[in-house]
Amino acid sequence: MTTDTLAPETADLGRTKRLKARTGATHDRLDAGIMSRAPFSSRERYGLFLRVQHGFHRQIDALYADPTLDSLLPDLAGRRRLHLIAQDLADLGLAPPPVVGAPLFTPGGAVDLPTALGWLYVAEGSNLGAAFLLKAAASLGLNETFGAHHLAPAPEGRGLHWKTFTAALDALELSPEEDARMMAGGEAAFRHVHALVERGFDAPPAV
């Protein structure tokens, strides 16, 4: 499906809202899959959640240093979270998951910008919804300075941090084909996290 074949009720929406509509079902399945595995029922389960987060952010970490993306999106380098997830794992005495293959986006590698934008949309949206996760982490004795660094809000607040990102995304001039690649990138990102959840929780690697 491309932007030319969107349903009438979504065709006139801004890009971010169309992304939300396109990826909504996949997003909902992911959320249900994560919460059904009780990631905040113990520190051990939370450690599995951190490994999932690490696996996802490893895929996109190079994007935060991409100069073209940096010129399009506000405070891109400041939105990077892989190092914070690594710190959270270290706080709990856990090693990062084993590295298997190269990440999807590599430092200095060629980047398809629309696809990258779709993946970054998923990453930024997860940060917007992290307030609930941070509250759940507090029940395990974790907070923004120990074990849950990556769930902390931006200094300006989650809402404004998200709005500046979505405003920049909505303002980009993309062709219908590029728009379609961005939508596909968002879908692929959600599916990738879902696969990480299934592997990480249902058959967790040894610590």
TrEMBL record:
GO terms for molecular function: heme oxygenase (decyclizing) activity. It comes from Azorhizobium oxalatiphilum. It holds the Pfam family Heme_oxygenase. This is Heme oxygenase. The gene is hemO. InterPro entries: Haem_Oase-like, Haem_Oase-like_multi-hlx. One of its GO terms (biological process) is heme oxidation.
